[in-house]
Amino acid sequence: MVSRGFYWTLWMLSCFGQYLGEDLQFSQPANGAVGGSVVFAPDNPPSTSIFTIQWHFGTTVILTALSDSTAIFPAYRDRVGFDINTLTLKLRNLRLDDSGTYRLTVIPSAGDLLTGETSLQVFDGPEDVSIKGQDVVDSGVRVSLSCSANSEPSASFSWKFNESDTDVTTDTFTIDQTDFTHSGDYECTTWNSVTKRSVSQKHTLLVKEIITFCLIQPEV
């Protein structure tokens, strides 16, 4: 049976932990991709024995640990791992709404309460890649194909024409004056440098040649 002292400790952590000084240090904020995982680990875990540990996301409790047991709250039960020796929290199956502030609170067996904060930014994409532009044009006109994608952070772009690389690295591929050699498949590839994902989309362009007929009247 859990003692009243345990619940008293939880109440103290929930009510006052966020107002205490930061003694546990984290080297830098964490970045992650949707569906991936991230690890939070303090740089200076206490060397003394520990009575109680608690991890929060904002004001939401993720887990509470004693020296011999760990209670993971239902919303995180299938998504977190915890190492009591290093105080490391691993969060799996990341979602966009996991972005925010994470707080670690430690009550040593002797000494003052310790706290520390770090943050997480979850990125996603690219998705919904599309190319806007004309499908059929006349020879001698200016054409622009515009590529877009939903991505956080913003995606980078590259283009291929008929499976060959081009030097275009912006979201728009422009042809100043078309001729029949510009007919073919234009492929835009979007790349997210954080999620390490790339998605491509193709667009087929047909350039119509203007044929001029000359009618010669026979001499009478």
What brief labels describe this structure?
single chain; 220 residues; mainly beta; Immunoglobulin-like; 2 domains; eight-stranded mixed sheet; five-stranded mixed sheet; 1 helix; 6% helix; rod-shaped; disordered N terminus; Ig-like_dom; glycoprotein; Ig_V-set; signal
Describe the 3D structure.
Strands 1, 3, 4, 5, 8, 9, 11 and 14 form an eight-stranded mixed sheet that branches. This protein is mainly β and 220 residues long. The protein has one helix and 16 strands. The chain is 6% helix and 48% strand. The longest helix is centred in the N-terminal third of the chain and has 13 residues. This is Ig-like domain-containing protein. Keywords: Disulfide bond, Glycoprotein, Immunoglobulin domain, Signal.
Number of helices: 1
- Which bin fits the share of residues in helices? under 10%
Question: Could you give the distance between the termini?
Answer: 119 Å
How do the helices and strands follow one another from N- to C-terminus? Answer: HEEEEEEEEEEEEEEEE
Spell out the CATH superfamily of the largest domain. Answer: Immunoglobulins
Strand content: over 45%
| Number of DSSP-assigned strands | 16
CATH class designation of the largest domain: Mainly Beta
Instruction: Please tell me the CATH architecture of the largest domain by its name.
Output: Sandwich
Shape verdict:
rod-shaped
Query: How many domains in all?
Result: 2
| SS-based class | mainly beta
Keywords: Disulfide bond, Glycoprotein, Immunoglobulin domain, Signal
Signal peptide: 1-21
Domain Ig-like: 126-200
Protein name: Ig-like domain-containing protein
